[in-house]
Backbone:
């Protein structure tokens, strides 16, 4: 783990409904890793 590229953890809480929405959007992108999906949305997503 010492050679880990991403060594800072970020945590947050969601409701069951929010988690379901994230899973639905992940399915559209055909990704199974929530960390990869959330990183992509946080870095490349739209600012509203």
Residues:
């Amino acid at each position: 783990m010492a050679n880990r590229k991403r060594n800072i953890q970020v945590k947050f809480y969601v409701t069951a409904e929010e988690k379901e929405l994230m899973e639905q959007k992940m399915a559209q992108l055909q990704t199974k890793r929530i960390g990869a999906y959330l990183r992509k949305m946080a870095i490349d997503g739209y600012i509203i």
Q: What stands out?
A: Helices lie at 16-29, 34-44. Residues 10-48 form one domain. The chain has a mean pLDDT of 91.
